[in-house]
Amino acid sequence: MNQDELKQAVGRAALEYVPDNCIVGVGTGSTANCFIDALATMKGRIQGAVSSSEASVARLKSHGIPVFELNTVDHLPVYVDGADEINRQLQMIKGGGAALTREKIVAAVAEQFICIADESKLVDVLGKFPLPVEVIPMARSYVARQLVKLGGHPAYREGVITDNGNIIIDVHGLRISEANKLESQINEIVGVVTNGLFAHRRADVLLLGTSKGVQTLK
Ligand SMILES: O=C(CO)[C@H](O)[C@H](O)COP(=O)(O)O
To answer: Which sites bind substrate (predicted)?
Structure first.
């Protein structure tokens, strides 16, 4: 199977975790898109979805799946999303698609986080993928200097504005051994909205697409 087929396989496999009649949390990116397409096949059995990005809202609506505002929803049994990197503790780097803040918010509300990924995303140590940080625009230079003090090499992601009207700084050169600590340290920098480390709220289940089939890690 090629990478696209692996993404489709994990997107379909995630349907097992979606209870009947629920509102489901939906992530962002090419793997999450495969989940949305699979979800369309059971749209008559769910109430609808809460989305982590405008792009996913558009894809959900194109399938006729009702989209709810998160503030109107008090129970979200499951959130399904991809990752840029994930380790065996199910801690992740996310935000390659610049949707990290809304992803973290929806994931915080959900009871279960199901990560769907092809096998290229599984790593021993997080940090080869540059860590995305969402930043208030006027704080860009200050935040970059603070990220250097933490040992990273920040790069402004030019031309990208998040759904929240902010910018993204990608931090290169990190080898993340204490993900919880680094997530908190970066979030303490004034001007940071959030960073793409999902260590405090890690995944509960990883559905990993491999050449031998979909493996489940918990
Ligand atoms: O965090 C994300 C978007 O902000 C995505 O989940 C992450 O970038 C993975 O995307 P893809 O499934 O396209 O590889």
So the answer is: 28-31, 81-84, 94-97, 121
